[in-house]
Write a structure and sequence with these properties.
It holds the Pfam family DHH. GO terms for molecular function: exonuclease activity; nucleic acid binding. Helices cover 52% and strands 16% of the residues. The protein has 2 domains: 7-204, inorganic pyrophosphatase (n-terminal core) (Alpha-Beta Complex), CATH 3.90.1640.30; 259-382, Diaminopimelate Epimerase, Chain A, domain 1. It has helices spanning 7-13, 15-36, 49-76, 90-102, 123-131, 146-151, 169-180, 185-196, 208-221, 229-237, 239-262, 291-305, 326-330, 335-345, 369-382; strands at 41-46, 78-83, 110-114, 135-139, 154-156, 264-268, 274-279, 310-316, 319-324, 350-355, 359-364. Helix 9 (208-221) packs across helix 11. By secondary structure, the protein is α/β, with parallel strands linked by helices. The strands form 2 sheets. A 6-stranded mixed β-sheet has the order 6-7-8-9-11-10, sandwiched between helices. A 5-stranded parallel β-sheet has the order 2-1-3-4-5, with helices on both faces. The longest helix is centred in the first third of the chain and has 28 residues, at 49-76. Strand 10 (350-355) and strand 11 form a beta hairpin.
């Protein structure tokens, strides 16, 4: 997808998307059936650019389907929440079930999970939904845990059709939304999602869509803004406000990058790999840019200077973030696989973790940070030439 004008042609010609077409139609039918039956709808989305674009697509397609006159009634039956991580925690699902029960629904509710949850740590929450008579629809692009495919009524994932994580959740949700109620805005949400997730399916020069992707990440992680899809949408549509927020975000990123240079250490191995270790405990948690984004920014800066397989590990108390370049992936590095090995080999040390081949996160149990980091260094050093 080399420019902004040929997204429709790409969608029509891509083999993975053609194989997913039936799933798009089935997902849209599940949502339309729930709307027509006046069922409660619970929608959770990952709180980053990709997840927000996925939620915006589904949200506005439902709004278009029911029309302005019936929208207030639909709004009262629809609960929408941002999910801060890739895991659907038991605390969140208990709250969700209780909120829906308080509605005293006459029809079985529908849960829609976007851009998160296809991991073993979320399985108990999915089972709790099913035990509470929810219909469960998931649209995600993270590498799959096999048992997740059996937990959902429908899982829409490129991995089931020969694709990979480059088909972002926002892109997938856009295709579902087009089957519910088509809008030309959906393609913009899809492009922003691909840019925000650094998908290789899209290659655009720096411009407005890149700015919008960063702005969504900034707004989603800032306490200055309310958690609202309507708010995200209004910012995207206000050029002056959008550019003002973009400048704020860039200033924060540049400031953090200067500090991060002092806390980065480069290791070089005989197998050709270079490993950057970045201390994240020097940065305040919960502020923009988040620790995952800091890791990504530092990784990108090193990648521009080093012509080699590169892995960056940002580490802080109980949390680690992985980034890798294409050369590292081609040379045998896989962040998701490495995390799976750590879960198996260090069961008492690992709390949870997962993600993509070149971008992932790991949560470590108290007191095991140093031990896990040492094991990660060994594993990168031992990757076969």
């Amino acid at each position: 997808m080399p420019n902004t004008d040929d997204i429709a042609a790409f969608i029509n010609s891509d083999e993975v998307l053609n194989r997913m077409r039936t799933d798009f139609e089935s997902a849209a039918e599940i949502i339309k059936t729930a709307v027509n039956a006046a069922s409660p709808i619970l929608m959770r989305y990952h709180g980053d650019c990709d997840g927000i674009c996925a939620a915006l697509s589904i949200y506005f397609s439902i709004k278009g389907l029911v029309g302005n006159k019936a929208w207030e009634g639909q709004r009262r039956r629809t609960l929408i929440f941002k999910n801060p991580s890739a895991i659907y925690g038991l605390g969140a699902v208990v709250d969700d079930i209780e909120l829906i029960r308080n509605m005293q629904p006459s029809q079985p509710p529908l849960a829609i999970l976007l851009d998160f949850s296809v991991n073993s740590e979320s399985l108990d929450s999915m089972k709790a939904l099913k035990n509470s008579n929810f219909k469960l629809l998931i649209a995600d692009h993270h590498p799959l845990q096999e048992e997740v495919t059996r937990a959902a009524d429908l899982l829409v994932s490129p991995w089931l059709h020969g694709g990979n994580s480059d088909y972002s959740a926002g892109f997938i949700a856009g295709e579902i939304a087009k089957k519910i109620d088509y809008s030309s805005e959906l393609e913009e949400f899809q492009k922003i999602a691909l840019i925000g997730d650094k998908s290789r399916l899209i290659q655009l020069p720096e411009g407005e869509l890149n700015h919008k992707a960063l702005v969504l990440d900034f707004v989603a992680s800032s306490s200055d803004f309310a958690e609202s899809l309507e708010l995200y949408y209004s910012i995207l549509k206000d050029q002056n406000k959008m550019e003002s927020i973009y400048k704020r975000a860039m200033k924060k990123i540049e400031r953090v990058k200067k500090d991060a240079a002092r806390y980065s250490k480069l290791k070089e191995f005989d197998n050709g790999f270079k490993l950057v270790l970045l201390r994240l405990d020097k940065f305040r948690s919960g502020e923009f840019p988040g620790r995952g984004k800091i890791t990504g920014e530092v990784h990108d800066d090193f990648d521009k200077k080093l012509n080699a397989p590169l892995v960056t590990v940002g580490y802080g108390e109980r949390m680690m973030h992985f980034r890798a370049n294409r050369k590292a992936k081609e040379a045998g590095f896989n962040a998701n696989q490495l995390i799976s090995e750590l879960k198996s080999e260090m069961k008492g040390a690992i709390d949870s973790g997962g993600g993509h081949d070149v971008a992932a996160g790991l949560r470590v149990n108290q007191g095991f940070d140093k031990m896990v980091l040492e094991e990660i260094v060994k594993k990168v050093e031992k990757i076969a030439k």
